[in-house]
Amino acid sequence: MSTLEIRDLHASVGNKKILHGVNLKISSGEVHAVMGPNGAGKSTLSAVVLGRKGYSISSGSVLLDGVEMLGLPTWQRAVAGLHLVLQYPTEVPGVMLNDVLSEALKGRGRDGDIARLDTLLKTEAGRIHFDEKFLDRPLNVDLSGGEKKRNETLQLSILKPLFVILDELDSGLDVDALRDCARRVMDATEQDGLGALVITHYSRVLAELRPSKIHILVKGRIVETGGPELADVLERDGYAAFTPEESVEDASTSDPMGLNLFP
Amino acid sequence: MPVLTPDAALSLGATWSQVRQSAHERATAASFPTTDEEIWRYSRIGELDLATFTVAETPTSITGLSDAVTVTQVSASAVAFDAAFADLFSETTSSDLFNSLNLAHMDVIVISVACGVVASEPIIVTHTLNGEGNIYFPRLVIDAAENSEVTVVERFISNDGVRSLVVPVLDARAAQSARVRYLAINELGDKAWQIGEHHSQGHRDSDTLLATVALGGDYARVSTAARLLGQGSNTRQVALYFAGGTQMHDFRTLQEHAAPRTTSDLLFKGAVQDTAKSVYTGLIKIHKNAKGSVAYQTNRNLTLSHGAWAESVPNLEIETNDVKCSHASTVGPIDEDQLFYLESRGVNPDVAQRLVVLGFFDEVLAQLPVGNLATSLRQQVANKLSIGVGA
Lengths: 263, 391
Hints:
In chain A, strand 9 (about 215-220) and strand 10 form a beta hairpin. Chain A has a domain at about 5-90 and about 160-245: Rossmann fold (3-Layer(aba) Sandwich). Chain A contains 9 helices and 10 strands. Chain A is α/β, with parallel strands linked by helices. The termini of chain A are far apart. In chain A, helix 5 packs across helix 6. Chain B folds into 2 domains: about 5-335, no CATH class; about 335-390, no CATH class. Chain B has helices spanning about 5-10, 15-30, 95-105, 335-345, 350-365, 370-385; strands at about 55, 60-65, 70-75, 105-115, 125-130, 135, 140-145, 150-155, 165, 170-175, 180-185, 195-200, 205-215, 220-230, 235-245, 250-255, 265-270, 275-285, 295-305, 310-320, 325-330. In chain B, strands 1, 3, 4, 6, 7, 9, 10, 12, 14, 16, 18 and 20 form a 12-stranded mixed β-sheet that branches. Chain B has a 9-stranded mixed β-sheet with strand order 2-5-8-11-13-15-17-19-21, with helices on one face. In chain B, helix 2 packs antiparallel against helix 3 (about 95-105), helix 4 crosses helix 5 (about 350-365) and helix 5 (about 350-365) packs antiparallel against helix 6. The interface between A and B is medium-sized, with 30 and 24 residues.
């Protein structure tokens, strides 16, 4: 049983503070959702956990089984067991999927899987209806939105991390692709004990990825944590119900007549 | 003293020595280039002292010969002029110093393919240039007759530490519907200089490819000019160049459309590491009569070290409206998003950078005319990359 714990995480981009002390803990086999409106800091959270450049962290911890991840380079966090499924997977011209996975598996000392990588890729591609012809393409080049997310899910299923952050999995995804990808993630949580942190704006994805806990992230803070029923509240009332009071006051004082002078 | 054009020389019962003499006079009259001239801007021409070199015969070997092609070698010491070659030199009245020097001292190889003949084997011409202080003047002429097809690879090789200069000229001619593919590979040592020219002429409905892979040399310059003279002709120019240490690679390109409905495409991709430099300047020139022409030009450069430098200058000169042209040029480090993506899979940064750089070049390698050479060239690029050595 592994745990990923985010403790009092404060992060900024340039001079703009985005995360104001995020706390969150997830264990193997669990699915948690982090939901929030635009600008809440959802993508920053995923970037900071994986160590993307361009963010400064003023305080806090990201602990994988008690081991501090902050300060480790991205690739070592990945080897340790963290994985990110990107909202918009990057095109890398000329770099082939199996070359990247071979190198990634090498870093994890999984020589056996390198030897049978072709078979693994075909099996996993079949499970999520990812056309085998795309296996010989440079990474994400000339793939549709749905194919890119299937490609991301394929990599996840081969690399078998302890925890995955799915950043807006449903962006650019048709219903079929969303179901294929989500089911593969759910299978991994049940069969391999994968822990999944689902970052999303919309509750649509939660019909397939069924979280046991939902965290509401607003203005860089988790303002509410609860069970799946929170999604229904959001669906009904929107994020306004979770907007911190001081910012409501801010809004009312800056625009007392509701004239929307400062949209 | 009358200027002897090759034609005039022929009518007088010309010899090679007269063709050379005329070129020698033009070379003597030509002024030495300076970086004030646009086509030599950014170059290292100021460091060159021709007086420190001795003219030497080019040591050349040729493989891949077959009945499909006729290959004639004429060394600089040959006197008898073969009248069959008269028209091959009728236009070489350039006043350019290096072109004239080449003509004056050239070791000529003429590869001819007869009408309708397809030479399926690539012909590999290898110059091994290991004479200290030598200057070499190879001239390769590819003469593809109507509807013929030929592929020629020209390799320039020397050992590290050998200070030599090679001034090669390629003259490729594709007659109507002919297909000519040419690849130059610079594997020169770290003290060698190269100042070369590639010229192609495409006649009606012909197809030409001028490809270059530059890995070696201290200063290596290639001017490549593809001229489309017949309507419906097509040409492609591609290059992979990768300079390290204190090397400099220097490319000047011309896509010249002088006939209607002609198409040209250019893809030059380069990388510089350590304190190496590279220059690309390219011109698309479309004449007034070249209506309905299409021209593309793309130059991309990766700067892999802080001390490395690359310049890219694309230019257009278009005299008619009825054309489709585009050009793109970039200079910059490896894309951070691409690196993050690979690293987030658990690939260490050195390996990730190697993968991205090799992937960057694969687009060019895939277009080289001899597929099995691409594999070894890719390996040479990988060996040269200083990123992640020992990783």
